[in-house]
């Protein structure tokens, strides 16, 4: 089980209201995209779910437990960032194994789990390489593997492939969707690309100025935009 329930969430940074009046339930096993332009509050919302920030108002519960009450090592979430997230002096194996070593798992189990996730992201045999010996796409695959290896219930991705070219971005987003469904985990995927959101989501949350504009299945959002903003934003790239 991994259900995320946001109730009456607001987040302010000084005088800037980053998020306001957010109520949302993300169901177990769903992939939800947070879609909106730059500055709309997507990363802030993701960071709140991950427990990196605390809400100014409201609560976020994962399977009924308030996220802010869970110490970091007990949070069932893992985050994938856009870039620069790998440790350059560590091998691929070392990067992925790091979180497991912190948890003091036996060496044989660490080796087995690292190999399993490398296989999952299509990088079997790359364990001894350094990040600098990988392409940008391969580095993001390692970042994904490093998040998956701790077996999170909820995967949080913040524009994970935004720095890659379109072709690679499309391939990797489809791979993420496939892995997420195979493992049956809940995922929240931040993007400013409507094509990406329409392609992989169970549901899309459209954000603008820190507020939810519309929540719905890709077909609904596309065919029946509720506001002029949603219509314009979804239509912009098609
Ligand atoms: P997005 O990810 O959609 O681009 P963000 O969640 O990063 O948007 O930002 C939403 C708003 O909150 C923006 O106005 C941004 O400047 C502001 N903001 C985000 N983080 C901080 C912070 N740590 N301090 C001050 N303002 C912030
Ligand atoms: Mg962002």
Automatic annotation (TrEMBL):
UniProtKB keywords? ATP-binding, Nucleotide-binding, Transport
> Superkingdom, according to UniProt?
Bacteria
Q: Name one GO biological process term.
A: quaternary ammonium group transport
What's in the GO CC field? ATP-binding cassette (ABC) transporter complex
| Gene Ontology terms for molecular function | ATP binding; ATP hydrolysis activity; transmembrane transporter activity
Q: Write out the similarity annotation.
A: Belongs to the ABC transporter superfamily.
Q: What is this protein called?
A: ABC transporter ATP-binding protein
Instruction: Supply the source organism for this entry.
Output: Pleomorphomonas diazotrophica
Q: What are the top taxonomic ranks of the organism?
A: Bacteria, Pseudomonadati, Pseudomonadota, Alphaproteobacteria, Hyphomicrobiales
What range of the intact protein is shown? 1 to 238 of 357
